[in-house]
Amino acid sequence: MAIKWKGVFPALTTKFTADDELDLSLFGKNLEAQLEAGVEGIILGGSLGEASVLTTAEKESLVLHAVEQVNGKVPVVVNIAEGATREAIRQAALAKQWGADGLMLLPPMRYRADHRETVTYFKSVAASTDLPIMLYNNPVDYKIDITLEMFDELAEVPNISAVKESTRDVTNVIRMRNRFGDRFSILCGVDTLTLEELVTGADGLVAGLVCAFPAETVALYKLIKAGKIQEALPLYRWFMPLLELDIHPKLVQYIKLAEAQTGIGSEYVRAPRLALVGEERKRVLGVIEQALATRPELPAYHHLNVTA
């Protein structure tokens, strides 16, 4: 399946049971809510998906389940976050074998690669597969900035086709557009910058709080891209306290608590993460409950003409 890197791509959480096994039934319930809301792709095994504590067999189960349930409606994208080039290439091959439609690729983990090493890493993985690739540019968390100069060299690689823009610098969207035009699709990767980056030229977003609030996320995207900014602003203001849960080190626990409160997830995480307790849980729960108490009635957004 060819991927149009636009619209809302949820970075899905991985659902676990109380016995620390995959909860594919609950995963499927959440996935169905995403599809009903109108997402245009899904991403498995990202940071929010707790990929670092999943076994290869568990990743396979998640991908196979998603591919079967999605049944071609939207592309299934698998995240790759590895320290060794050889292992990243192996994961790319497995993703293709399992039926994935594309990859999201992080720079090398743990080792802070320089310009030449980072570009070579990306080119090596891309050359090993025909799957379309979205690079994940998040120097805040992963300490490697995929610079414009790196993109100059990567532009010659045909299947590197998009970037998840998480530098936290909104003007980077403008820089990318000025330098490369439409060569790379740009997806906002920071929930709290959704409106700003969509207005300045991003094609879509890789979202976190969409896991708990799929309809609100897709409605926000469509209102903004349809040019209905005045209608989007009240929804964005309501959403912002929730969106801020996405930029905390415990975003997994925070977003899973939100999923549990909206009935499409649970609070179970895998160690070393621990479920929230005490005052921290009370505080985050207060944010979620306030949002639910004031949850807005959404406009009829599915029909909106999104052309940009």
Unreliable spans: none
- Order of strands across the widest beta sheet? 1-8-7-6-5-4-3-2
Largest sheet, in brief, is: 8 strands, parallel
- SS strand fraction: 5-15%
Give Rg in angstroms: 18 Å
Keywords: Lyase
InterPro entries: Aldolase_TIM, DapA-like
Protein name: Dihydrodipicolinate synthase family protein
Active site: 136 (proton donor/acceptor), 164 (schiff-base intermediate with substrate)
Overview of the structural elements:
This protein has 308 residues and is α/β, with parallel strands linked by helices. The chain has a single domain (7-293), classed as Aldolase class I (TIM Barrel), CATH 3.20.20. It has 12 helices and 8 strands. Strand 2, helix 2 (56-70) and strand 3 form a beta-alpha-beta unit. Helix 1 (24-37) packs across helix 2 (56-70) and helix 11 crosses helix 12. The protein is globular and about 50 Å long. The two termini are 22 Å apart. The model has no long low-confidence stretch (mean pLDDT 97). InterPro entries: Aldolase_TIM, DapA-like. Belongs to the DapA family. Pyruvate binds at residue 206. Keywords: Lyase.
